[in-house]
Amino acid sequence: MHQGRRIEVVGIVQGVGFRPWVYRVATQLGLQGQVRNDVSGVTVEAFGEPSALDGLVQALSSDHPPAAEIRSLRWTEIPPREAAGFVIAPSLPGTGRRVSIPADLATCPACVEEIFDPSDRRHRYPFTNCTDCGPRFTIALDAPYDRPVTSMAGFVMCDACQREYDDPLDRRFHAQPNACPRCGPRLQLLDAHGRDLKSADPLHEVAAALRAGSVVAVKGLGGYHLAVDASSPEAVRLLRERKRRDAKPFAVMVRDLREARKLATISEPEAKLLESVERPVVLLRAKRARALAPEVAPDNPLVGLMLPYTPLHHLLLADVERPLVMTSANLSDEPIVFEEAEALDRLRDIADLFLTHDRPIVTRCDDSVARVVAGAPVLLRRSRGWVPRPIPLARPVARPVLACGAQLKNTFCLAAGDVAVLGPHVGDLDQLEVHRSYEESIDRMQRFLGCRPEVIAYDLHPDYASTRYALDRPEPVKVAVQHHHAHVASAIAEHHLDGPVIGVVFDGTGYGTDGSAWGGEVLVASAGAFQRCATLRPVALAGGERAIREPWRIGLALLLDAYDGDPPGLWNFPAIPEAAGVLVRQALARGVNAPKAHGMGRLFDGVGALVLGRGTSRYEGEVALAWNLAAGAGAHGRYPFGIDSRGALLELDLRPMVRALVEEHLAGVPAGHLSAKFHDTLVHATAALVGMVRERAGGFPMVLTGGCFQNARLAEGLKAALEPEGKVYLHRQVPPGDGGIALGQVMVADATTR
Q: According to CATH, what is the number of the domain 375-499+736-753?
């Protein structure tokens, strides 16, 4: 007795070899019918014996291609009919579009083997790919994901490539970017003025130039990198000078995991993350005797390493035989360059050579950055490799939502139905070029997803560029979302939590509902509402925003507050310039241009400036990060602290800690001891604060969120301290900092406009 079933599969099921895999399974089971892409995912219509149909459903549920990700699978019976075998049918356009196109996938081992095999027809071909790897999101123009709507449409496959593409048993069956040296994209080497150097072997010439100390702009998947020899101090200094990037660490690409282990101490979870198909930059503890120029990450014990994720990278690293700095091609704080004309214009004073090619990049997408915290990955920047992978929502949004994100480390988020899609990393919206990129990225993602938002969510801060953008949009329904509520709601969404949670939110600053700067908060929150239950005693920001760039001002304010205006040895702190310090002290005493801020990040800035003698930050969070990384291993005791519980809002008072720490510092106690003790005090004090909130509000699940929880010691310590009291959640797939806040804005906006 033959039966028929229609099976609808939703998830990452296009561009990952899913249809040929279904074809092979169905053929082996003796089924007839078809499989096709549609705008929702993949639909299978199969006819045959009930046991064979059961086998197909079971295979779809439990075994699928490695890059596929199934979110839902449902089937219904349909009338049986005769079909001429099982076929892969053309894709169908339609409505009800869902995200089904995968992110870009790192080159698979089979393709790597081919490009290094002299007997293979793709030997040294830098655009080799198959259904298991290669560009996806960055070349896609529309959905469903088929070659005519990618930037490969202009490359007509040769007979050999077409045979592979048409053969369901070939691993390149329907690999949309399939190509070879005869019919596919080609490299081109240009000089600094954009002149074609007519190179017979661009990779060989670029490798020689890199070994000689040149700066080369290399066109990758989501944009250009600037590459130099990472073992050469002179080359790295030259890149810093031209790129106008004084101190912020550079990412380094190495040939394989064995080479990475020479440069950093790598745990098994870190090794797995490095070799994952997403290929992020992974922050690792650098080895002291490393073969990297100190200028790669000045005064920083961490190094950001990544492995090659395109054939071009594999070939280049093999030819150079040295680690390479691979940093986003731009001037500091500008968006990554992704178009050739733009690259030649904006990078002509930086790069000596341009290694480019004729496959257009449709969407710019910077490298992702991750770190292992508490034994598992935490995304610090969610971009290439993850975007546009959807985030499933526990409850569908009532109407499509666009969340505009924050000012710094911006990403936006589009949500429709039961999924939310975070856009690629945009960056800090202070720069005009970044803001243009932000608007273009939103427009492109809306077209790509076929999503017309009806609700616009934005940060409560009135001066954010993302807020102004939101208010200028034509949609009538707009929702302002408090910054720290959005952080907590982001964790609620990521972990599919029901009901209220206790959210510990530690970051730099965010605009509070009372108009002050928050940033050291304990909230009891659901998606629709929150209560501020505890906060950090505020510190004055002398000079406002200037204090963030010159954290000695925060250190001075901490001293004056801790010692009631008369700290000992005030001018014994090298970070505090005496002449300017006198003026700032007077301004603080009068309360002139000195807004109060509750930010935990500001505490790190101020104490770090005092102890490390670093009065200025060359990039956002530099001194806070240095203070975190200064901490010695192991337990070093705790400092005293207080909690003011007289009012409804608990306040953590760390003035006793500041006094004790300052006295030890002036007595010559090493910074490593002080930083470790500082961290352990924060863990103990926060756990005590959360305990009091739980007594007042209830024993809800706890989430740790905000940029300070990129700090592994703080996150791991607080998670361990709180777990005896209940379940504790850290971010994993969504950044804890402002790069994940847009997801929380979606949740709040949807909950408050239903």
A: 3.30.420.360
pLDDT, tens digit (0-9, with 9 covering 90-100), for 345-385: 999 999 999 999 999 999 999 999 999 999 999 999 999 99
Secondary structure E strands in 39-182:
41-48, 69-78, 86-88
* Alpha carbon of residue 586 to chain centroid: 42
> What does the DSSP 8-state code read for residue 436?
H
30: buried, middle or exposed (CB in 10 Å: 19+, 13-18, 0-12)? exposed
Q: Are 103 and 422 in contact (CB under 8 A)?
A: no
Give the DSSP H or E segment for 613.
none
Q: How many residues does the chain have?
A: 754
How many angstroms separate the Cα of 532 from the Cα of each of 506, 583, 597?
13, 35, 15
Q: Tell me: the pLDDT tens digits for 497-510?
A: 988 999 999 999 99
Cα(43)–Cα(78) distance, rounded to whole angstroms? 13
The class that CATH gives domain 534-730 is alpha beta
d(CA 457, CA 479): 5
The class that CATH gives domain 187-357 is: alpha beta
Amino acid, single-letter form, for residue 127: F
β-sheet bridge partners, residue 33: 46, 86
Q: For the chain, how are helix, strand and coil distributed in percent, rounded to 5?
A: 35, 20, 45
Question: What pLDDT, on the 0 to 100 scale, is given for residue 95?
Answer: 42
Report which listed range, 1-15, 79-93, 165-179, 184-198, is most confident.
184-198
Token pair recorded at residue 622: 């530099």
Residue 426 contacts by C-beta under 8 Å, 6 or more apart in sequence? 335, 405, 410, 411, 412, 434, 437, 438, 441
Cβ neighbors of 64 (< 8 A, separation 6 or more) are: 18, 21, 70
Handedness of CA 465, 617, 710, 676 (dihedral sign): negative
Helix (H) or strand (E) holding 35: strand 32-38
Where are the domains positioned within the chain? 3-88, 187-357, 375-499+736-753, 534-730
CATH topology of domain 3-88: Alpha-Beta Plaits (3.30.70)
* pTM score of the predicted model: 0.92
Residue 177 region, left (φ>0) first, then alpha (ψ -120 to 50), else beta? alpha
**Among 299, 236, 332, CA closest to 622:** 299
Q: 125 near 115, Cβ under 8 Å?
A: yes
